[in-house]
Amino acid sequence: MTIPIYEQAIGPEFFRLQPELQEYFSLAPGSGHYGVGEGVFDVVGCGQRWLRPLLRLTAGEEAFFPEYGEAVRFRIENHAHLDPYGRSSLTARREIYFPGRTRLFHDTTSALGTPGPARLVDYLGKYRRLATDLNLSVTPEGRLRGISRSSRLFLGNVRLRLPALLDAKAYAEQWWDATEGEHGRHRIQVKVIQPQIGLVLVYAGSFDYRLEPYADANTAPGFLPRHAQPVRWERRR
Predict the structure, then answer these.
(1) What is the pLDDT of residues 160-214, one digit of tens each?
(2) Is the distance from CB of 186 to CB of 174 less than 8 angstroms?
(3) What are the angstrom distances between the C-alpha of 206 and each of 43, 100, 172, 177?
(4) Which of 10, 65, 68, 91 has a 20 to 30 Å separation from 98 between CA atoms?
(5) Which CA distances in Å does 190 have to 96, 159, 172?
């Protein structure tokens, strides 16, 4: 079993994370298990009404969506696997249950072998046409923080790096809140901000998390259930 990609990226700092976060981010290819989180977003979606028609045009990518809501239930599955190019990866499949409509949000984070800590690249949407570099750190309280750096669009054979003025940055923080619920819960907060238009997307809430075994006790490192697979994979970085 390989080292989990988040431990590859932040090295010994990984063990300064809260124990519950270490468990959450410890999935590795070949473990025979996947993670399931179920909870409620206190807030989720695009708060700017004028921007929603534009996001509706991209909703088919299953990376952004035009809805906005409060107290919205969601479910996430985390699958650790090797992607078709042999890269250690973590694929997340989210179902967000807006009233009258369920939205899907997919991404795959892959570890790229480099001298020193691994470089993490996040590929978004069911076509994986948008990629962004992730910069991770551990707070003094043991929370995990992540900031996206530079983004690229893959349109056919074209690789288009977004200029800084157009690129949206994602700011994420995840932690364990021992005061939440009866036994404590995971909490997450993510904001996607574009410098010219402001807040594009936000989601923040809490959830319970558990590990489930794959059917037939599948421990193949490259295994990813069909419903979690993207329409296409992207090899470019």
Answers:
(1) 998 877 789 999 999 999 999 889 999 999 999 998 889 999 999 999 999 999 9
(2) yes
(3) 11, 22, 14, 9
(4) 91
(5) 15, 26, 4
For residue 151, give the nearest of 164, 140, 135 by alpha carbon. 164
* Tokens (6 digits) for 194: 């574009």
pLDDT tens-digit map of 135-160: 999 999 999 999 998 999 999 999 99
DSSP H helix total and E strand total for the chain: 3, 11
Which residues have a Cβ under 8 Å from the Cβ of 216 and sit 6 or more positions away? Answer: none
144: tokens are 């995990």
User: Is residue 185 a contact partner of residue 206, using CB atoms and an 8 Å limit?
Assistant: yes
Angle made by CA atoms 120, 210, 204, in degrees to the nearest 5:
60
Q: What is the DSSP pairing of strand 88-98 with strand 68-82?
A: antiparallel
Quote the DSSP letter at residue 221. Answer: T
d(CA 54, CA 65): 9
Cα 179 to Cα 186: distance, rounded to the nearest angstrom: 10
Report whether 21 contacts 4 (CB < 8 A). Answer: no
Give dist(CA 172, CA 186) in Å, integer: 13
Quick check: helix, strand or coil at residue 230?
coil
